[in-house]
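Continuing the series of single-chain predictions for the mutant panel. This is the parent chain; the variants come on the following pages.
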Amino acid sequence: MAEDKVYMPSGAGGLVRFGEDDGEAFKIKPKHVMFFVTGIIVLELVLRFLPK
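Parent structure:
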C-alpha cells in the first residue's frame, strides 16, 4: 500500500514581501538622526552640570 504524502505549496519561493511600500510618512537622513542624538546628549550634560 502506497503512502499518501501531502506536499505543501512553496508559495513564492521565499520572495514574499510584506508591507514594502514606499508610502512612508517622512524620511529622515542618518545625518539628521546623528545631530538630534548629539543634541540630546549635549542638552543632558548641560542640565546635569548646571548649578541648582
